[in-house]
């Protein structure tokens, strides 16, 4: 019997060590220590052992029972620990969950930067000017007559009679020309303010990009080419553009630039008011009075300028129906642009 006990001690320990899960352990526990288990049968067989050996064998068997019981418990604890650390539930090759808490650029800022990138590609550089602006730069230097309706308190937020929140990025043209000799090709992105009631297409703050090119013999054709290259790059397709005569105090001639409607491709729809065209910016040849305000010599240079609403082109490109969505910062809206822009 001694041999059987020794064999069971070694053999039992090995079998317990190779049990792979709780079910296997419990099956093995029954096979060794259960009512009909191997150790239990040996205990029952004690009655057949010689009287002299019986107490010793009994003690050995009880010791084995305790040892095996402890091995079972240890193995169970080990298996539970393995499950947490590197058990089959954790597959390191699966893609992780992307972090959602990280910040990203606001879609307007992304659009603004992608518009700038297109102009950098054409050799433009970037400048900026103040949002709190002198009435002089916002209007007077841009050839606005004193009684021009845009100066009206209805449209402009005045801080005092000579200082306002700029209503357009055009004042940066004059500030830049005062400091820079031609040739120059520059863009001036930034925020502008108007005293408007907010609705789906108006906001009291929005973004514009101003463009200015001045050199000897710059022509309207250069303006048309520049705009076409921008439209093709930004909207992706070969969209036709057209110039419509218009009036701005600081350009002569002045035009409004339309592109073919991105929604209906010129057929006419609700978005383009059935015209097939969408207005995307104002533009023109720099007015001689503006050159004069900037201190440029008469008749030496010509230039073109343009100004476009970033909000507007963003809304057209991404099908955004209400400008207020761009300023409310509702994450349900903003998150749609995550990773897209
Ligand atoms: N400043 C004009 C506006 O806010 C837009 C504009 C039109 C800018 C014509 C220009 C331009 O530079 O040439 O409505």
Describe the fold and architecture:
This protein folds into 2 domains: 2-85; 107-337, BirA Bifunctional Protein, domain 2. Helix content is 40%, strand content 20%. It has helices at residues 2-18, 22-33, 38-44, 54-86, 107-121, 135-138, 171-179, 220-235, 288-294, 310-318, 325-328, 331-334, and strands spanning 125-126, 132-134, 158-160, 163-165, 184-193, 205-215, 241-248, 251-260, 277-286, 302-309. The strands form 2 sheets. It has a 7-stranded mixed sheet with strand order 1-5-6-10-9-8-7. Strands 2-4-3 form a 3-stranded antiparallel sheet. Helix 1 packs parallel to helix 4 (54-86), helix 2 (22-33) runs antiparallel to helix 4 (54-86) and helix 5 (107-121) crosses helix 10 (310-318). The structure holds 3,4-dihydroxyphenylalanine (DAH). 3,4-dihydroxyphenylalanine binds at residues 168, 170, 210, 248, 251, 282-284, 305-307. Residues 168, 170, 210, 248, 251, 282-284, 305-307 line the site of 3,4-dihydroxyphenylalanine.
């Amino acid at each position: 019997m001694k041999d059987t006990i020794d064999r069971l001690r070694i053999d039992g320990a090995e079998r317990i060590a190779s049990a792979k899960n709780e079910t296997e352990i419990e099956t093995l526990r029954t096979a060794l220590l259960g009512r009909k288990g191997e150790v239990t049968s040996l205990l029952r067989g004690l009655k057949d052992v010689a009287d002299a050996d019986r107490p010793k064998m009994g003690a050995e068997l009880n010791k084995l029972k305790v040892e095996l019981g402890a091995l079972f418990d240890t193995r169970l604890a080990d298996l539970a620990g393995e499950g947490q650390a590197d058990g089959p539930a954790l597959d390191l090759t699966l893609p992780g969950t992307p972090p959602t808490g990280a910040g990203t650029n606001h879609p307007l800022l992304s659009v603004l930067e992608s518009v700038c990138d297109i102009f950098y590609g054409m050799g433009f550089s970037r400048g900026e000017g103040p949002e709190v602006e002198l009435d002089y730069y916002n209007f007077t230097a841009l050839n606005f007559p004193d009684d021009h309706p845009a100066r009206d308190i209805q449209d402009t937020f005045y801080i005092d009679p000579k200082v306002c929140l700029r209503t357009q990025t055009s004042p940066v043209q004059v500030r830049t020309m005062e400091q820079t000799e031609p040739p120059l090709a520059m863009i001036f992105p930034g925020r502008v303010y108007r005293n408007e009631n907010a609705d789906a297409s108006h906001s009291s703050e929005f973004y514009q990009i101003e463009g200015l090119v001045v050199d000897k013999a710059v022509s309207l054709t250069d303006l048309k080419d520049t705009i076409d290259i921008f439209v093709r790059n930004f909207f992706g397709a070969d969209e036709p553009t057209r110039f419509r005569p218009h009036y701005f105090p600081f350009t002569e001639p002045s035009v409004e630039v339309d592109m073919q409607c991105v929604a209906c491709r010129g057929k006419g729809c609700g978005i383009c008011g059935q015209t097939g065209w969408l207005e995307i910016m104002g533009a023109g040849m720099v007015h001689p009075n503006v050159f004069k305000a900037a201190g440029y010599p008469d008749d030496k240079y010509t230039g073109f300028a343009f100004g476009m609403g970033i909000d507007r082109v963003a809304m057209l490109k991404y099908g955004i129906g209400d400008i207020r969505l761009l300023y409310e910062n509702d994450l349900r809206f903003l998150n749609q642009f995550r990773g897209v822009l």
